[in-house]
């Protein structure tokens, strides 16, 4: 039986001179503190190539793969492959808002991809599958696989404004009627995380949702969740298209994940199936790739003094794990 689930990736080549000049042009005069000096999030160190190899190796059942880009394509991409479709920002976002350099704004429009299946899984380009999967790992009984575990938001950096904005909107919408659904509030598959959550369950009941443990891995979504969110927060969604760069006023795709959770529209899974490794933790990454039990990993870019050396070492590890060129490469 063929799968009706699509995968969606977002990708940008932050090393592209044309793109750099465009970004620089629009940055002039902006008040954004997020993107003026934060080039780390835009660096491309070839993880997409291996992410697609991981999909071919461990999720051959996927229907289509959509790659969202900004007038760019990887030089190595096979444009003849019918299973992978490149989607330019202009196909999902009104041209009057372009160019957009804000991933939060771009992600909130991904349900508009022409031909996208109702059930889809969203990947960043640094997220890779590490073992065989089937469609039930992402959707079961037509519902996303996810976990509903509450936590607090610790305000230690500017980025924390964004999850706080999400939870303000969500709590206003729930309006002291928590829980809208009890599905997945407590489940044995959460393991040790369930114990850590108990104080936050009490807080959610008495004062409102404090925040969530977020999976830094592939996210399963239904398109109808985007449409529902766009109706509930119409003004906020429209405003996000005007946020060319990240700002403290942003909301993010996490808000839609939380909406699915609060309506109980998901099947509970173990949070530990997705694991994150910064580029300066190569030892743990190597062990995970060789012997790990994670379903997927995320290789997080961060500031390191020996960046080029670290990237070459990571590429060697990924080449060992995914040596075979995929159908998506020339």
How is the topology of this model organized?
Layout: E1 5-10, H1 17-27, H2 47-58, E2 65-69, E3 84-88, H3 103-107, E4 119-124, E5 127-129, E6 139-140, E7 143-146, H4 161-174, H5 193-206, E8 219-222, H6 223-232, H7 234-240, H8 254-262, E9 267-268, E10 274-278, H9 282-291, E11 296-300, H10 307-321
Parallel strand pairs: 1-2, 1-4, 2-3, 7-9, 10-11
Antiparallel strand pairs: 4-8, 5-11, 6-7
Helix pairs in contact: 4-8, 6-7, 9-10
Structure explained in plain terms:
By secondary structure, the protein is of the alpha/beta class. The chain has one domain (5-321): Alpha-Beta Complex (Spore Coat Polysaccharide Biosynthesis Protein SpsA, Chain A), CATH 3.90.550.10. It is built from ten helices and eleven strands. The chain is globular and about 55 Å long. It starts with a strand and ends in a 9-residue tail after the last helix. The mean pLDDT is 93.
Tell me briefly what this model is.
The chain contains ten helices and eleven strands. It has 330 residues and is of the alpha/beta class. Strand 10, helix 9 (282-291) and strand 11 (296-300) form a beta-alpha-beta unit.
């Amino acid at each position: 039986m063929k799968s009706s689930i699509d995968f969606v990736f977002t990708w940008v080549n932050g090393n592209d001179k044309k793109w750099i000049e465009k970004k620089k042009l629009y940055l002039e005069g902006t008040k954004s503190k997020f993107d003026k000096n934060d080039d780390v999030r835009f660096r491309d160190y070839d993880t997409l190539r291996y992410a697609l190899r991981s999909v071919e190796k461990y999720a051959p059942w996927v229907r289509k793969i959509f790659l969202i880009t900004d007038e760019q394509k990887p030089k190595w991409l096979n444009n003849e492959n019918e299973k992978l479709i490149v989607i330019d920002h202009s196909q999902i976002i009104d041209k009057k808002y372009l160019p957009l350099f804000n991933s939060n704004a771009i992600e909130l429009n991904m349900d508009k991809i022409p031909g996208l299946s109702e059930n889809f899984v969203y990947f960043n380009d640094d997220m890779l599958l590490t073992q065989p999967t089937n469609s039930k790992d992402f959707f079961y009984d037509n519902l996303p696989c996810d976990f509903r575990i509450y936590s607090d938001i610790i305000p230690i950096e500017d980025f924390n404004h964004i999850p706080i904005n999400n939870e303000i909107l969500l709590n206003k919408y729930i309006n002291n009627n928590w829980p809208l659904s009890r599905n997945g509030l407590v489940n044995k598959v959460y393991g040790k995380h369930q114990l850590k959550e108990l104080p936050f369950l009490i807080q959610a009941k008495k004062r409102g949702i404090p925040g969530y443990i977020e999976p830094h891995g592939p996210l399963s979504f239904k398109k109808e969740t985007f449409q529902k969110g766009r109706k509930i927060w119409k003004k906020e969604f429209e405003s996000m298209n005007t946020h060319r760069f990240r700002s403290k006023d942003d909301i993010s795709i996490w808000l839609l994940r939380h909406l699915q959770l609060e309506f109980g529209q998901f099947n509970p899974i173990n949070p530990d199936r997705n694991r994150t490794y910064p580029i300066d933790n190569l030892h743990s990454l190597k062990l995970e790739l060789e012997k790990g039990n994670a379903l997927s990993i995320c290789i997080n870019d961060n500031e390191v003094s020996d960046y080029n050396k670290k990237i070459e070492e990571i590429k060697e590890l990924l080449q060992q794990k995914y040596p075979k060129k995929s159908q998506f490469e020339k």
